[in-house]
Design a protein that fits this description.
Blueprint (H helix, E strand, L loop, with lengths): L9 E5 L4 H12 L3 E6 L14 E4 L9 H4 L4 E4 L10 H27 L7 E6 L11 H19 L3 H4 L2 E8 L14 H11 L6 E4 L3 H25 L1
Parallel strand pairs: 1-2, 1-4, 2-3, 4-5, 5-6, 6-7
Helix pairs in contact: 1-6, 3-4
Length: 239
Amino acid sequence: MINSTRNKKTIGITGASGALGKELTKLFRQKGYKVIGFTHGKTDSKINLESPNEWIKWECGKESTLKKHLKKIDILILNHGIYNLSRENSNYENSIEINALSKFKLLNLFEDIARTNESLIKKEIWINTSEAEIFPALNPSYEISKSLIGQLVSFKKNLLDKDTKKKLIIKKIILGPFKSELNPIGIMSPKFVSKKIYDLTNSKSYLIIITPNPLTYLIFPLKEFFNFLYCQIIYKYKS
C-alpha cells in the first residue's frame, strides 16, 4: 500500500522506457516518490521530474545481478514485456522468457529480499499481466506467456507461508488494451491506465483490473477464487 506520509517509498519499475512505464514514472515522481527505472534499451541520461531518479540497465536471464538494486526498493512494479506477431519458434521462446519467466525470477528474488527485510514496512510487488491470460489477443505466443505468468503469480500468492505474508504483498494488475508502440490501436491511454493503477493500489484487493471489458471484472475474480480453493486443497494434502 502506498504510504501517504512525507517519508515516501522507493518505486522500482521494469519496462520504464515504454509507454506505460514512462507514465507511471512521471506520476510517481509528481507524487514525490523516488523512482528507479529498469530498462533493456537505451536510456536518456538527462534526469528531470518526468524521468526516473536513477536508471538501471539490465537484460533477461541476468535477474540475479539486480539484487543489490532491488534491496533499495519498497514497491517493485514488473511492467516489462514484448508483443511479437512472428510465428517463429524463437518468438514463443522469447515471449515466455521475457513476459513470464523473467518476471517470475524477479518475483522470487524480491520474495527472498522481503524475507530478510528487518523493516516493519512490508515490501510490495505488482505484476502486470493481461486480459490475454484468459481472453484471445490474436497472438498465441503472447497469450501463452501471459497465461503462464498469471498462473505462476496466483500460485505464488496463494502458497506463501505465514511468515512471508507478513513481509510481502503481491498484487496482480490485469490490463485491457492500452495504446503503446507494441499496440498502437489500444483503446485506453497509458496516462489513464497509470492513474488508475496508482488510485487502485491503495486498496487491499489483490487484483487490480483496468479494462473496458465488463467480462474481465467477472471472470478474473472467479478464476482467482478457484485458484485459491485449489491451493487450500494442496495445503491440506501436504499436511
